[in-house]
Amino acid sequence: MDALLKHLQATLAIDWQNLPTVIAPTLSAACTVSWRESQHYEIYLNEMDTPLHHDRQREKAYQQALSQVRNLADAQAILHWNLLTEVQEVVVLQSLRSSGEAQAVMLHGISLKE
What we know:
This protein is mainly alpha-helical. It has helices at residues 2-13, 24-31, 40-53, 56-74, 81-97, 102-108. The longest helix is centred in the middle third of the chain and has 19 residues, at 56-74.
């Protein structure tokens, strides 16, 4: 949480209307790059993550969350905290369901594994 707070403070401290000359050209160039679907996330899940963990429930959760995020992006949904939390819950709860820990996380926000 501290790292997130520091990042947020740094982001809010930037005067986005008058960017430093070092940053402005880089951001302008980045804005001109068009999005190109690469399927890299699916490739990583299929070729690296799933074989490493041997967990089909985990794979299903990540694929479901990835699909949800892609649908939100296609719909140009505005990214906000509740939406991030909703997507994260897909991953966490699907992954934990097989361990029986999901209910404790949902109801109490705690992990039984320490």
